[in-house]
Specification:
Oligomer: single chain
Distance between the termini: 43 Å
Number of domains: 1
Number of strands: 6
CATH architecture: 2-Layer Sandwich
């Protein structure tokens, strides 16, 4: 299966125009503008610190993936600095949105489905842990909270890492709903 074919398979919930419209309306109702947000940056910073991962994101999936909360590694770390927007077919968050379930990938190369990804080639990501942000009244997935790393993690770490990411997702949803 080629990456292009896999991208077409992913064009479901994560890229469905009606679902994107619903996401946008729900986010707007709660005062989430889709811009960088200091409270989401704080969540991403804590998530990176708790997991030890160099990158953490609060990601809202609209026409593009937008990291309203973003933690990058220090500029002098030698690691790539990522921006706040990404193609909606790249990374693993579209899988989480479409599955409506968390996704622990201690080694993205352990599965052909997840190893052929532009993020692997662009910045060398080999581990991903993500959890959906599900609106409790509608069941609509608004986006994700995730961490990514350039090193493979032990499979035995997955439960603990996912628990941290799940906690951050719950904190993010509480933040959204309190607005």
């Amino acid at each position: 299966m080629t990456s292009d074919h896999r991208d077409l398979v992913l064009a479901t919930l994560s890229q469905n125009p009606a679902v994107i419209r619903t996401r946008r309306e729900l986010l707007a109702r709660h005062g989430v503008t889709g811009e960088a947000d200091a409270s989401f940056d704080d969540i991403a910073d804590r998530l990176a610190a708790e997991t030890g991962f160099p990158y953490a994101m609060v990601n809202f999936t609209l026409e593009r993936q937008h990291f309203a909360g973003l933690h990058n590694p220090p500029a002098d770390s030698g690691l790539s600095i990522v921006g706040r927007d990404m193609d909606p077919r790249h990374g693993w968050c579209p899988h989480v949105v479409d599955r409506e379930l968390g996704l622990p990938l201690h080694d993205v190369h352990a599965s052909r489905l997840y190893s052929g990804n532009p993020v692997v080639d662009a910045i060398g990501i080999t581990a991903y842990y993500g959890e959906p942000l599900i609106h409790p009244d509608t069941g609509t997935v608004l986006g994700t909270v995730c961490v990514i790393d350039q090193r493979v993690h032990e499979l035995t770490e997955s439960d603990g890492l996912m628990a941290i990411v799940e906690k951050a997702a719950a904190e993010t949803m509480a933040n959204i709903l309190s607005r």
